[in-house]
Amino acid sequence: MVTMVNSRMYHWQGNGCDFTRFDIAPKDRINIVKAFNDDVSIIAFTGSIWETQQDGRSYIELPANMILRDAGQVYSTTMRQVADTGAICREIRISPQRLAEMYAAADQELAPINFQSPVMEAPEVHEVFWLMHWLSEQNPCALEMATDTHRLLWRLSRRSGHPGLRRSRETSPQKIGRVADYIRAHFSDGVALQTLAEIAGCNPFVLLRQFRKKMGVTPHDYLAICRVNAARDLLKRGAPILETSFACGFSDQSHLTRCFKKHMGVTPGRFVTINRR
Known about the structure:
Blueprint: E1 8-14, E2 17-24, E3 31-35, E4 40-46, E5 48-54, E6 57-61, E7 65-69, E8 75-82, E9 87-94, H1 96-106, E10 119-121, H2 123-136, H3 142-160, H4 173-185, H5 193-200, H6 204-215, H7 219-236, H8 241-247, H9 253-264, H10 268-276
Antiparallel strand pairs: 1-2, 2-9, 3-8, 4-7, 4-9, 5-6, 5-8, 7-10
Helix pairs in contact: 2-3, 4-5, 4-7, 7-9
């Protein structure tokens, strides 16, 4: 692994949330004294160990932990150890207003997140968070971003929230079929998770669960397959790869390449070469 020479911070947005990646060089020992954020913070990191003070208590934060901080929560934190190659800290910030919107749309599917302790010992959630955060850097489509954000929030609420939630009733297979029909008809457009939920007559969390149960994939994966199939047909007819990317709803050529390789087993360029023989 390459050692980080200089610390750098990157920022981007997706699904109404703010994303940050902080690459920390070994020489930079971070010490934050009495700070707070205006937004809810969800944090995970690798390559370091931190000690945090919050509400008069001290916590040790390890690489497999999730860190949850409520908006306005005062804390202090110090990096106690860092790997020789450096550390990476990933954070998602959600405004209280945006979080309230997601909870309202969930129709009591989500338990309130417990912010009493900032440390959640949940390696499985850490793994989901890390992959989702990394994927958000790859310029995903809006549906993928919304799907990943809702999936993470569902896991966090189930892991840290209170039991005894009312489970929303399931939606009918016919309505899920109409969602699939809508995706096939609008694959080249921006497909929103909330729109699909409205078609199914349920909240986004129920839709994600029921769509996967019936179709075997998430709505985003289904959308990606539709786009790849359309791209395949255009490439067979000799359409340029770059033009095909935009015509089929991909954000750019690299987005097409990733999805095409995943679902077809070869890159678009290789597919074109094979079909010319």
